[in-house]
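Translate sequence into structure tokens.
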Amino acid sequence: MSQILIDFKEQVLKNLANHGYPEKRISFPLEKMYEVADNKGLSFNKVLELLKEEGHDSELAVDKVIFFPVQAQPSEQDIIAQAQDAMANMSPEQLESIQEMILGMNPEDRDALLKKGKDLGLV
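Result follows.
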């Protein structure tokens, strides 16, 4: 990887940080970004790929490129733990309401929910 590419990537990250990234999604003019990269003898698409590998995703719109952090996908265990935590913090009335909702489901939906619970090891 060339030093020019590394320097350009670092400059993009610095400019993003100056505008509130990663807390905010930041956009830059798309045509300008391609021009600057081209003037340095670089492919802006290669810069975007490199940034994505480092956890900085982007989306190309008609006239801008929007940067945002790559979202980590929660694991199945994380989802189960969150659900268990949520249920542990529910009041008896909330738990009863959920139970009534499940009992009020049509049989097909209730069976599908029960199957999903079994698949996840909850039931």
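Note: The chain has a mean pLDDT of 89.
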